[in-house]
Amino acid sequence: MATTSGQSSSIFTRNVLIGVSFAVGLTLGVLGVFLIQHLKPQNEQSSQDVARSESQQTSTKSTESSESTVTERLVEVFHHRNVIEQNKALYSILSSASEEELGDWWIQSQKIERDSHREIAQDGILRHLTAINPQIALTYIEEISVFQSEEPIRSVFSEWSLQKLDEAIKAANTLSSSQRRVALEAILETRDDLPDSRLRTIAIQLEGEETFLKLVSDASVFMSTAEPKESWEILLNDDVTDYLQLDSLTKVAEAWHEQIGLEVLSKIYHSEIDDLGAKYRLVSTIAQLDFHGALDYTRGLDVENERSFLASTIARAWARTDAQTALAAVSTFESLSSNLELQIARIWAQTKPYEVIESIETLSEEVRIETLEKAFSEIADQDPLEAIEKLNVVEKFVANASSIVQRIVNSWARQQPDTAMDWVLSNYSPDDQHRHLLLATVLHFLAPKDPDRSFEIASANPSTSMGIKLESLVIRRIAHEGDFDVAKKFLTRVKVLQTHEAYAVVGQEMVAQGQYSVALELGEELPETNQLHYYYEILNHWAQYEPRVLYDSLDDLSTNHLKSWAALQLIMKNRYEPSLTEEQISHARTLLISSHQSSLEKYENR
Questions:
Q1: Which residues are within 8 A (CB) of 147 and not within 5 positions of it... i.e. 6 or more apart?
Q2: Is 515 left (phi over 0), alpha (psi -120 to 50) or beta?
């Protein structure tokens, strides 16, 4: 355009009209070229963009349509009222689905809110997908919560074991222990066409031989369900740990109860069940069928241990459902009433702390303090200040609430040691006898978090007649956490009367954490008059923790006296907890000095 303007200007000097005509013509020409070169491609580009946009919209609509179709068909499946019809409809739809389509179905199945419907859908999808590509099916399981993965794992490995057993076993070995157990159960239950020897080999491959033994035992049990006693003996005499087959034991016990009534409680008690927790659970399950009747049954038992065990187990189970009714029932249980009341009250305080506080006057005075300690501790775990505020509700029902405050502060300090410490310092004067004990409680938790503040508080509150040396307590807690540099820094600031004890607690923690030579070197910082006592305590501690290491280190001890003392501790320790050979003990005896030899003879001849 600049060149055209120059030409127009030149022509203008000769003839304005010609110049104007020429300029207009040239301008129109350039404009025409411009329109041809630029507007036409833009129109073409615009057409392409429209086409692409329409294509994308079509694709999106297609995807949305596909998702909508899957969703609609899933809804149709669960319009059927019974599970058989639901499975039939689902399998009819999935039978011809491709791997890609099954992937779409899986995505939509995760959106199903109702658990039972989601499990049915995912079971069918995974089984069909496993038949096509089991590895992909396994990756889908990795996408879901571990808490929802058990049934999908069963589906995949059940189907996979039918298709390609060896591949399924190999894949199961890559899972976590809990998922591997589920996969193994699915394989064993599905491939019951295989001989037991083969199934046992598979179980061993997947580190689950006990799972195989449990399934075999369960199968034997349920083949003889008409004879609960026989089934009971099968379960107790197999090679499976009892707690692993607790469900089976429970079912048999319930069937046995239908035959012989509450006498089954005695059968459970006298059975050689290797897990006490399992025995508690079994008794509790039967008791729940009739708490009143179960407790009355125990009144007529002649064996005191049996009566006590069954009555207390029943009472505790009852307390979890209706503590007040349980309390009323045990109040007439003569010899066991106070013990049963305490057990019920403890559980009541644990499960319903507010309720037990409001009803504390219904409990006998003997059990109130312990019950309230537990109840207030439970509340303090959630809100310490609320627990403090509620103290006035119970103060008139107990002679002294200091132990309750102690439990509240302990729970508080475990969560917020700084705040708990502020409260103690603000609410208890230096001459209050309870202050020192509460400070010790809080310092136990505060020292690892704020060593400097803890030591300052400990130094400002000297030991009382209660005997708790706060400085040593703080140093021990810091050393226990392995921060020996900080602990040693405070050793130089400890009051003279606590010096020996403070050094000893650090040395003992060093020994407990395997820093033996450092512990020995620490003693050299003490005055010579205090060193022997320090080494006595350290070597005694060492003998308790690592006797073999101490034996191997005897020659490294600096004096014959220390070697003798260490040997004496090892010999005495070995009498009630053998860890050294007779030859090693004989060698240790050769290191004893006469005074230690005499002490040992008195010990052995007492």
A1: none
A2: beta
Long-range contacts (CB closer than 8 Å, 24 or more residues apart) made by 518-524: 518/484, 520/557, 520/558, 522/488
List CB contacts of 352: < 8 A, sequence separation 6 or more: 323
* DSSP string computed for 84-119: HHHHHHHHHHHTT--HHHHHHHHHHHTT--SHHHHH
**Number of residues that make up the chain:** 606
In angstroms, the CA 231 to CA 46 distance is: 81
CA quadruple 112, 117, 118, 122: dihedral sign: negative
Q: Which residues contact 374 (CB under 8 A, 6 or more apart)?
A: 346, 349, 350, 353, 407
Distance from C-alpha of 159 to C-alpha of 107, rounded to nearest angstrom = 20
Residue 417: HSE in the Cβ half-sphere, 13 Å Cα cutoff: 16
3-state secondary structure of 559: coil
pLDDT tens digit sequence for 538-568: 999 999 999 999 999 999 898 999 999 999 9
Phi/psi for 59 (5° steps) reads -65, -45
Q: Who contacts 240 (Cβ-Cβ below 8 Å, separation ≥6)? A: 210, 213, 214, 217
* Neighbour-count burial of 407, counting CB atoms closer than 10 A to its CB (0-12 exposed, 13-18 middle, 19+ buried): buried
**Residue 344: other Cβ atoms inside 10 A:** 27
Instruction: Give every CB contact of residue 590 below 8 A, 6+ residues apart in sequence.
Output: none
Helix-strand-coil split of the chain, %, nearest 5: 80, 0, 20
Please state whether 341 falls in left (phi above 0), alpha (psi between -120 and 50) or beta.
Answer: alpha
pLDDT tens readout for residues 236-283? 888 888 888 898 899 999 999 999 999 999 999 999 998 899 999 999
pTM over 0.85: no
DSSP string, 217-228: HHHHHHTTTT-H
How far is the C-alpha of 368 from the C-alpha of 148, rounded, in Å? 44
Chain centroid, CA 591 distance in Å = 49
Q: Please, is 264 exposed, middle or buried when counting C-beta atoms within 10 Å of its C-beta (0-12, 13-18, 19+)?
A: buried
